[in-house]
Amino acid sequence: MAFNVQKLTSALSAFSNSPTLTTPTITSPTLVTPVLGAATGTSLAVTGAISTSAGNITITSGNLINTAGYIQNSVGNALTAVGTNRATALQLAKAVNNVTSAASGTGVTLPLVSAVGVGGMVVLFNAGGNDIKVYGAGSDTIDGVAAATGVTLTDTKRAVFIAVAAATWVSAQLGVVSA
Fold first, then answer.
1. Where do the domains of the chain lie?
2. Residue 142 — φ and ψ, nearest 5°?
3. Strand partners for 173
4. For a designed S-S bond to 135, which of 75, 86, 110, 148 qualifies (C-beta 3.0 to 4.6 A apart)?
5. Are 105 and 127 in contact (CB under 8 A)?
6. How far apart are alpha carbons 139 and 148 in whole angstroms?
7. At 154, is the pLDDT very low, low, confident or very high (cuts 50, 70, 90)?
8. pLDDT (mean) for 148-161
9. Is residue 76 a contact partner of residue 103, using CB atoms and an 8 Å limit?
10. pLDDT by residue (tens digit) across 3-51?
11. Mind giving me the DSSP string for the chain?
């Protein structure tokens, strides 16, 4: 394939005489996921906050270490237990939940294990004046009990529900109210 030197020279001349290029403005930037190397000591230093609006921040190995400050969870406060079965119970939507009003026979429903993720936890305080039923969502079980049956959390008690496997919650009752 032969090049026409005269046409190539003309084209280069036209390019070099064109107006100055300006930096384009990016109005909707897309963050490309950075990939850190696997070498020992590789890290990403960030000053300020790391946030995401479309998913999780996942650490695939190692630990998340907080050397200064607190870890904050979402909180549902002053909740009222409602309904008399899983279909009508209050759907919990936070990691920490404080039920302060509960008529006899009412209850709450945990989020799906698949929404929280295995290893996730939901903390529940019952200060509602009556025992409440805690139901699983979908086919989730709580301590081996069917979701629609639920388990009882007595008044003035608190428990943490831990997702230990797909569709499987286990509970641990927490200590008494401190005096």
1. 76-173
2. -120, 115
3. 159
4. 86
5. no
6. 8
7. very high
8. 97
9. no
10. 565 665 555 555 555 555 566 555 555 555 555 544 455 566 677 777 7
11. ----HHHHHHHHHHHHTSPPP-PPPPSS--PPPP---SSTT-----SS----SSS-----SS-----SS-----EEEEEEEB-SSTTTSEEP-SSEEEEEEE-TT-EEEPPPHHHH-TT-EEEEEE-SSS-EEEE-STT-EETTB-TTT-EEE-TT-EEEEEEEETTEEEEEE--PPP-
Q: Which two tokens stand for residue 70?
A: 């607190």
| pTM, full prediction | 0.70
CA distance 80 to 12: 75
Structure tokens of 29? 């930037």
The more confident residue out of 88 and 41 is 88
Architecture of domain 76-173: Sandwich (2.60)
What is the rounded CA–CA span in Å between residue 113 and residue 55? 16
**Tens of pLDDT, residues 92-115:** 999 999 999 999 999 999 999 999
